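Retro notes
What went well: the complex prediction finally ran end to end.
Inputs used:
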Amino acid sequence: MNKNRFGKTALASLAAMALLSACGNGAEENGGASTNDSGAGGGKVKLTLWHNFAGDDARAKTVRAKIDEFAAAHPEIELDAQAIPVDGYRQRLSTVAAADEMPDVFLSYAGSHIKGFQESGLVQPIQELLDAKPEWKDSFLPGAFDGSTFDGATYTAPLAMSATSFLYYNAELFQQHNVAVPKTWDELMAAVDTFNKAGITPIALGNKAPWVAQSTILGSLADRVTGTDWFKKAVAQDGAAFTDAPFVEALGYFKQLVDADAFDKGANTIDNTQAEQVFIQGKAAMMVSGAWTLTNLATTPEDTLKKIEVTVLPAIAGGKGDANTISGGPGAGFALSKKVEGDRKQAAFDLIYAISGPDAQKAIAESNSMVMYKTDVDSSKVTSLYYKAFELVKTVGITPVYDAYLSAEAGEAINNGLQEIMMGAAPDAVAKNLQDAQARSLNP
Amino acid sequence: MPASLRSNRFILIALLPALIVFVLFAVLPILWSIYYGFFQWKGMGDAKFIGLGNYRDMLQDPVFWRALRNNLILVVSAIVGQIPIALAGALLLTANTWFNRLIRSALFMPMVLSTVVIGMIWGYIYNYQFGLLNQALTLIGLESWTQAWLSNPKLNMYAVSIPINWSNIGPYLIIFIAALQNISSEIHDAAAIDGATGWRKLVSVTLPMIWGTVVVTIVLCIAGSLKAFDHVIVMTGGGPAKSTELLATYMYNSTFAVYRYGYGSAVSTMILLISLLLIGINMAVTRRKSS
């Protein structure tokens, strides 16, 4: 018991540190974690909700509006909703997880994030809710629950599709310099060369937070070379390793881009948002980025935005994977803490349905944000760029995003490895580090 | 005797609230963190006792040594940068004129800015495409010197240390000005009578008089440089590819990016040990000098 108290003190100071790192965003409140006592105060049901829709973008506002609607429609529920900025969100969650004080309902990312909570016994499935609303469950796109289903039970329903590797290009610049949209690797390299000669950055990249190059470029590029089956085997360390020749070759393609000066020299020290600005201002011809760029660029004036077109990365000759694909998968969804029971569980289910049900999915899609849900989008409500991407996604295959499958340690190894390649390292050394990290985390 | 005993008890009672807060929020977390350093723990689920395993991993991890080297670069740059500049500033600016007050405020200014703001400002100054530094170099015809200042692993640690030093000069300046004003005027008069002026007076009279303060500022510099974190996390996040990783960012990344809480605790214990070691060395060296 005593031990536990000391632990909480230590964690409180860790939490303070996590808060410091996230400071500058006033949207959050410095509150404790969850209040697990139910029914205190006149039979009111108390629920805590944590999410990261803290920003000023259209999607965040949409989700917050749905939460407010729910709170207004349910006066019998005392809802304590906390919006935590994205940058500090994972840290805040892992801090309360360490103290075993999870909020009742919280946003969790599909893949290794929700899996960690599941393995530690901190969450319970929402299968019951899904089964009770079959028309809702069946409207999700294939694979929507892949990243959050363990032992046959689903833990979150995704609010978003994290398509991570669109190739955005500035059609005006392509026309001015007489460049065709690259369909093959050689055409891409030729385009890089042409734009470099014209003094335009070929590909805008903001890789200061080092997941960017991995999530947007490498995942999709490597899948074209190695195929998806190989990747899943390598993740499981079952008959394939990251030191295999095809993966080293894929890293070699990335290195070709670096060596051809496809990226700005300072790409490792600017962030993704700055790179988006460089691109939208016409200082760069292309940008490989995810669906979040659609949301971020939604406030750009339409006559600038209509110059931007969207397609998939070029094919690679002799590769084992399909070419007409983007990397992506289900995004974050709301998870339910293990400790929620009885009345509170029903209230929590109502809450989850209200903020990720059919109406919410449509509203989110119309806030220029991709969803993993069959819904119609009114093209007058969204930007032209979003509509193009929305239509594109219907025609392409989806391949895995690397860091959603790799262990945290292996994810860090490849993220840093790509930065190392950008600073001159050899692909096989990076492949070996990744392989070692993944092997170590499977057999510690 | 009874009177002094009573006053001792009063001192104890008066100190108690602060002491409790200090123990609760500083001492206990440190002990707790040392304890967790012996475990393999993801931050949730069960912790497994592995003895000194985390420390063994740490000593074998090249990133730890790079972080330590980077921290030592910061310590050296702080001692040869911050202290001499602050001391020179204090010596030149002791007179209380309008102009001196202005310069003193200017030197102190970065101290009142948030470190996040400083990190972002310098991030923009160093930016490769539109940064002030590269544009200034281009303007005076030194285009060949332009650099991706924060990307180049040979330079970025030095580039990062400049804003850290710049923003920390202020408090040392104030400490030195206070120390210089404490030297009584009789000593200045006596020095003048003996014919000691300029450099001679500085080395033989002024510096020995404020030596205690110099030692304190060196200790503060070492401690401050070893726990440096915020500027670097804002400017580079410890990257690219760990080239500007510091012990504190290494600890943070191990804990919150890779979810190795036990390992992160071991790293923070190591930071504590290294700080104590360096401060101990400093004490030993400067004590001999002053006696």
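What we learned: Residues 1-41 of chain A have pLDDT under 50 and may be disordered.
What to try next: split runs per interface for comparison.
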